[in-house]
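Protein in question reproduced for absentees:

***
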Amino acid sequence: MSRETPLLTHPVPPDAGAAFGRIVTLQQVSSDDRWNALPGELPIAAAVAAEAVRDGPHVDRVVCVSSAPLHVPHMGAFALSKAVQITPGHVMDLGNHCAAVLDGLWLSTTMWSGQANLLVSATELGRAVSEEMSRTKPGSQQWCDGAAAVVLGGDGPHFIRPLAYVTLVDPSLESMLDVCPTDDGYEYVFQADVAAQFQARDLDNELAVIRQALGAAECPAADIAGIVVVNRGRRRTGMLAPALGIDPEMIISSRAEIGHGGGADFLFNLDRLLSQLGAGSHRIIIVGNGLGYCWSTLLVEVTVAG
């Protein structure tokens, strides 16, 4: 890679890892009128968060990640903890883009591994966006109101251990996206010419972070049980498998069923993969990008209880 698109390999602490329990997704919880007064994407975030802590696991920190024009910056995690009536010692709002969920997984299994972290990802891009895009661009990416939550570092029966974390920022693509304030939040405005550059570089950048992570962990691709991706275009996902020399069935996406739910996609698809793999230890790649110009790969070993 050029100096302008540096790969950063994050050192893995020797005691990294965290227990975890059930991954809760929006499809697994019923709607609840209690949350309707909350702003932005917080109603669906509160629904999955409440279900994740329903059986009473202790929570030290709420980590909130969203991808929503109505995002409540710097206050989402605090408002969420108040709404769900848990009193953690810390709250943390991570970047408002899909791949920030990988930051949340990384931090919860390294820096904060001695604590119980409620990781919540939600997006309220939803049906209105899909309807507008279907009208103006038939066949375009479909979006959904997506949310998922999991408690990491509690007393759950499963265990996740990071083996490598690699990130890449491509600053030449930063002008692809403008964030424009509106009366009730903000909206994303994509620059079409720069978006075309993103499409041209997306696969190369994604392969770069995957290969760097495999090399850092001295893990051959043949040892990987599956690759969890963000729910984006079929073309990109279809190109990833032959480029890595793996079976396309190993790439786990729920795009056809739910569309793109922002960062919640990663937890949706990780949950799906774990249910397919069953009990035992499995090495898994979680890979995706955020806002078009940053890419991340988290290589993990997950031990699933029988």
